[in-house]
Each structure stands twice: as C-alpha cells, then as structure tokens.
Amino acid sequence: MNQSKWSRLFWPTVLVVAFAVPFLFWDNLRRKLGGDIIDRTFLVLQYGTGIAIWLSLAWLVVRIIDIFIWQALVAPYLGGKVPRLLKDVVAFVVFMVAITGIVGVVFKFPVTGLWATSGVLTVVIGFAVQSMIADVFAGIALNIDRPFRIGDWITVPRRGMADITGRVVEINWRSTRVHTTENLLHIVPNNFLSTTPITNLSLPEPKTRFELVF
Predict the structure, then answer these.
(1) Closest-CA residue to 190 (of 202, 205, 206, 173)
(2) Rounded to a whole number, what is the distance in angstroms from the first to the last CA of the chain?
(3) Is the pLDDT of residue 50 over 80?
(4) Cα torsion for 58, 145, 192, 210, to the nearest 10°?
(5) Distances from the Cα of 118 to the Cαs of 18, 132, 173, in angstroms?
(6) Residue 98's closest CA among 143, 145, 45, 59?
(7) Among candidates 207, 204, 190, 205, which has minimal Cα distance to 156?
(8) Residue 144 vs residue 61, higher pLDDT
C-alpha cells in the first residue's frame, strides 16, 4: 500500500476520532459543568457531533471500500477501471445506513417509521421519474451483464440515423458516453442500450474487420 492511498484515509480517520472522543464523554462533561444553558448547549453540540461522526464514518467506509475492494480486487479482475455506477450505488447505500444511524442513535427516533415514510415517498417519486429509474436499473444490468466495458469500441444502431461507432469512456447512473473517431461525445441513455442490439468491436478479440465503400 503506497503512501498516497494511506493519505486518502487520513482525513476521514481524523474526523471519526475527533468527533468520537467527545461524543463518548458527553455525560461526564455535563455533570462537571452543570446548568440548564450548558445542558442545552451541550445537547446541540451532542447532536451536531453525532451527525458529524456518522457522516465521517460513512466517508471513511467509502474510502476503505474504494481502496481495498474497488482498486485492489475488482479493478485487477476486470482488467480496467471499475464502472462509476457501481461505486455510486455502494456509496449511496453506505450513506443511507449512516442517515438511518443518525435518526435512530443520535435523535433516538424509531427507524421503522422512517423506512415506512421513505417507502411512500419513494413510490411517489418513482411515478414522477420513471424514465430516469429505467435508465438507472438498465445501467446496473449493463454492469452486471457486461456486454461492453470502459475502453471497448462499440457500434450502436439508430433507426433512421447513422450508427454510433466509438469508444466507451464512461458508464454512469443514467447514460453511457461514447467517444467517436470524429471527436464527438455521444451520451446514450442506458435504457436505450439495454433494448438495442449492440456490436462490440473489441470482443472476443481487439482485432476487427471493416468494410469501407468508396
């Protein structure tokens, strides 16, 4: 593990320790100082510190996953960069767990009510952004099925228009970015790619035969 990787873990670790130490000794400090104003001040500080420690801990976990799982294990297995979509999904789950911890541990609210409310809200939002959700799940399916990888050359047919032929440079939440030989960047929705026959010019081998008509 080189020094740059350890440096990426430095600040998240410092934040976790800095907020964890006073959070664990709030009761002792409050008994020593006393007073209603001090109690209220310490209560606000306790809430703020609790929120900060959960968020900094989530940040540290995301960095650890990025260094020890994505870079050390997954990237060598894939033989290239890990798709950003997978990183974003895992980071989102980690921060959702942190928010649940803030509600349940810091504010001592029932977490079941939060999940029930968020479930209803998710249904409402789902109807409003159906196409976006379709693109997200199509992106996840593309990363699992892996019909193409970042760096592959692909051809995407378009009805009534010229085909898109270029190199895949990014696969994110909603779309896949394809850089063509004309130095153009096409942003193709993932839902379109999941329902369209795609030709991968880089598989099974990087050598491909073309026909040019003059």
Answers:
(1) 173
(2) 54
(3) yes
(4) 130
(5) 31, 19, 21
(6) 59
(7) 190
(8) 61
* Residue 110 Cα distances to 52, 94, 184, angstroms: 20, 19, 51
DSSP letter string, 100-142: HHIIIIIS---HHHHHHHHHHHHHHHHHHTHHHHHHHHHHHHH
Beta-carbon contacts of residue 78 (< 8 Å; ≥ 6 apart): 149
Whether 44 and 106 have beta carbons less than 8 Å apart is answered as no
Residue 69: how many other CB atoms lie within 10 Å: 14
Amino acid at residue number 57: L
- Give the predicted TM-score (pTM) of the model: 0.56
Confidence of residue 166 (pLDDT cuts 50, 70, 90): very high
Half-sphere exposure (CA, 13 Å, Cβ side) for 54?
19
